[in-house]
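Note to self: the last two entries modelled the partners one at a time, which told us nothing about the interface. This time every component goes in together.
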Amino acid sequence: MTPNEKNDRARIREKARQVYEVAEIDFDRLSPGVSPLGKLLAPFGLPVFELPDNRQKLTFRTAIEFLRQYTGTNWLIPEGEENELSGFLFACENAGIYHGYIFTESSDSTARRRFSAAHELGHYLLHFLPMIEASEAFENDEMLIWTEGLSQASDETNAAAKIATSEADSPKYIWLNEREMERQANQFAAELLMPAHICHELFEKYSRGSRATSAAIARQMATDALVSFEAMKWRLTDLGLWAPRERTTEGV
Amino acid sequence: MNRHFFGEDTIKRERLLDLYVWGLDHGDADAIATVLDAALTDPQLNNLIDEINQAYEEEERLSPLANEAETVRTLLRQHIPSAFESHPLQGPLTVRDAAGHLQSKSRVPASDSEAHRLLLNSDAPLPTHLSLVEIKKLAVKLKVKASDFYWKRFQQSAVALWMAQSQKQAQLAARGKRKSKDAAAQKPQGSQDSDSEKERNKNDAE
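The predicted structure of the combined assembly is written out below.
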């Protein structure tokens, strides 16, 4: 890991910790269990939505069509945006005030929806707000709109982020560095839902004197934290706790 | 102050009427024809134009192709107030606005109906930061108790109103800036720019 990557991870970890602080939850004294995502989101002007028609899949188009109807405002829909999404962020800034919506796919599991919501909160804090702060390039009387979609196909790539200004009636969308932002948002969601010290504590507890495989432990920990097995596996690997071959052998 | 929401058709109609007035103002038969063409397939627009023309006739001294556009604007304001830039979605958003929006978009649970009724009668401004935390603080201040489910819906509605208001403000600001640019460009170039203004009005209407 390069020093830059280390710094980046430390910055993201600190951001997750700040979210706990803002929500008045003591991060260091967290008990193992389900992260209180509702409480963590409460200090932000970011209500979470699911499309009301559960026959409809979440895409850029369906989310913005819904927002058109819900806000009574004619938001533009970027063309060709039919990829099915797990999460979607629509955030706006106007005159120094910012609010938005997080959408999650209603047919996803609760664990997946929690991760998607945390991932979109990550984009909001790590990318949208800093962009606002550094937005000298945009004139003050313009409204900034940020949209980001977390693709169903892959958690790590394929997601598109766009910003637009509302000058005139036809905002121009600007494509941003998606891959890097996706990695950071995933990292943030992991820090929020699976804090490192909790993971270490639980892993130690489940592996002490046990012949359980890493997979079995990860499954148990995923249940405890209400995240998907895949997310927990990724997190344990990230923390250097996942040793599948060794443990599989031991388990057999 | 009452607040209203307008559908796309209404907004399009308003823009066409604005273009109609612009056409009258500048004696531009093409602009007027554009609107009249649209009215052929839009009975509601047709009725509104009839009302305006009727009003002209009642005011004998007015001629539709003269310079009395300001008077026509006054009449339009009476008929279709939202056709003008003094859009009703201005001023601070209130608790009543958010409760009204909530009611128009989803069913209010019976257990929250009393709280909802109180909120519908409240002129208190919404907090600047529309987080659930701030909304619940406001609820304490207003001494209104409702379920978490209700407050989440209320927050969703409040954010929707803010977004609509923000977009409207941004569009008005952009339009104002455009007009200033046009006016600045108009000085040296003379009459050429009235065409660009007309073009913009047409684009807005379309």
